[in-house]
Automatic annotation (TrEMBL):
Organism: Candidatus Lactobacillus pullistercoris
Subunit structure and binding partners: Homodimer.
Protein name: Aspartate-semialdehyde dehydrogenase
Residues annotated to bind NADP(+): 13-16, 41-42, 160-161, 330
Leader sequence segment: none
UniProt: substrate binding residues: 157, 249
Length: 352
């Protein structure tokens, strides 16, 4: 009989955690048991896994006794505290936070792009940042066929990237704005939880995601640059592909958009060639029919595991350069689905 796994979901009550429960329920992983973990605040909450009623437990190091696989999305400090404890007890962890992404012995994996990296794990596998995942999904087929020289990306990121509380905050601000009330009081989390100032996102744009660093870049922008290099080139500081990013929070609840400008080594590549390789790549859906006004939109991507790509066009001023527009559900391919998909690959590859 094939092995069945005892699985724990850390951060099970959050925006990503709830979707992890759902994605795990739909996955091919043979499951023996599921344990739902969160903080003491939500211990005792009842949640469903398939047709089972499960009670959320407060997380302690001993919560991981007997667990084979941990899927975690409870914030970086929680991962740093508990995942080494889980590994000590024999579990393999797929972590959706940024806690371990840049550690040399931690693979950073998008399964369609660099599955072989999973073989090098020492108990922890990191799920990349949501914006990075959808960008590398769109660009990897281009890199494989035509080579990539440079990427310039501007993101249009949904509120849910900052968790369930940020979605609630956006909704309250929107209602207050429509009711003619001041919405500044509602802003308690965005642009980023730990920072000194908070601004409303409703009817606004915030060019700050995560903290602003002395370099002038936000930490989200830093992540996009270095994670892309680690995933595509296995070296977070490689200069083989030049990457720069501007990350902006937009008043959309779910699904990020990205305007991606890129240059290729093979300058004979046409926009049609780029469309062909993207259409053939597993997990990518080409939505590019300008005559019929077909292009990716967040409201259509919500709930899908796919990455949608459109508006692919040459930069007529520069040879070998292109623009495109990429949309994906940041909570699914950008988080819960990529985490569960990594776990499916670990099982298939016999790595748990
Ligand atoms: P809780 O519901 O008990 O606060 P989101 O990203 O949507 O904000 O969700 C964060 C998730 O991380 C929630 O499930 C939250 O649980 C969980 N969490 C936060 N702090 C801790 C902690 N100290 N230990 C375990 N889980 C935590």
């Amino acid at each position: 009989m094939s092995k069945e796994y005892n699985v724990a979901i850390l951060g099970a009550t959050g925006a990503v955690g709830r979707r992890m429960i759902d994605q795990l329920a739909k996955s091919t992983i043979p499951i023996k048991s599921v344990k739902l973990l969160a903080s003491s605040r939500s211990a005792g909450t009842h949640l469903k896994f398939r047709d089972q009623d499960l009670v959320v437990e407060e997380t302690t190091p001993d919560s991981f006794n007997g667990i084979d696989l941990v899927l975690s999305s409870a914030g970086g400090s929680v991962s740093k505290k508990f995942l080494p404890e889980a590994v000590k007890r024999g579990a393999v962890c797929v972590d959706n936070t940024s806690a371990f992404r840049m550690d040399e012995d931690v693979p950073l994996v998008v399964p369609e792009v660099n599955p072989e990296a999973l073989k090098n794990h020492h108990g922890i596998i990191a799920n990349p940042n949501c914006s990075t995942i959808q960008m590398v999904m769109a660009l990897e087929p281009v890199r494989r066929k035509f080579g990539l020289k440079q990427i310039i990306v501007s993101t249009y990121q949904a509120a849910s990237g900052a968790g369930q509380a940020a979605i609630d905050e956006l909704k309250k601000e929107s209602q207050d704005y429509l009711d003619g009330k001041d919405m500044h009081e509602d802003a308690q989390i965005l642009p980023t939880k730990g920072d000194k100032k908070h601004y409303p996102l409703a009817f606004n744009l915030l060019p700050q995601i995560d903290v602003l660093e002395d370099s002038g870049y936000s930490h989200e922008e830093w992540k996009m640059i270095h994670e892309t290099k680690k995933i595509m080139l296995n070296d977070m500081n490689s200069k083989d592909i030049k990457v720069t990013a501007t990350c902006v929070r937009v008043p959309v609840p779910i699904a990020h958009g990205e305007s991606v400008y890129f240059t290729v080594e093979d300058e004979s590549a046409t926009a049609e060639d780029i469309m062909d390789v993207i259409a053939d790549f597993p997990g990518d859906v080409l939505q590019d029919d300008i005559k019929n006004q077909i292009y990716p939109q967040p409201i259509n991507a919500e709930g899908s595991r796919d990455t949608f790509v459109g508006r692919i066009r040459p930069d007529y001023e520069n040879k070998g350069a292109f623009n495109m527009w990429v949309v994906s559900d940041n909570l699914l391919k950008g988080a819960a689905w990529n985490t569960v998909e990594n776990a499916e690959y670990l099982v298939k590859m016999g790595l748990i």
